[in-house]
Amino acid sequence: MESMQKQLMLVRDSLAPEDWRDARIYRHIDEYKLDYTLIATKVSSGQIHFYDPDTGAFEPLNLSGVVERPPR
């Protein structure tokens, strides 16, 4: 899991400040394992996004409920 944290740190460090702000990596328990999530606010929309390492892209965070992701 340490490699995932390092990968997210590299992504966070590469974010352009004019496009993203408040980028943070959160550590949490997901299905009995330690997991990490990168969250950032998109400046142009003010929306909070999470980084999906499977696609290599930021996706809007669904704050009204659980974020549904396909099984890995």
Compose a concise summary of this entry.
The chain has 72 residues and is an alpha+beta fold.
Question: What is the global morphology?
Answer: globular
The number of E-state strands comes to 4
> Which residues form runs of ≥5 with pLDDT under 50?
none
Based on secondary structure, the structural category is: alpha+beta
Element-by-element helix/strand order? HEEEE
Helix content: 10-25%
* Mean of all residue-level pLDDT scores: 89
Strands ordered across the widest β-sheet: 1-2-3-4
Strand percent estimate = 35-45%
What is the oligomeric state here?
Answer: single chain
Largest sheet entry: 4 strands, antiparallel
How many separate structural domains?
1
**Number of H/I helices:** 1
Intertermini distance:
16 Å
Q: Radius of gyration in whole Å, from Cα?
A: 12 Å
Task: List its salient traits.
1 helix, 4 strands, single chain, four-stranded antiparallel beta sheet
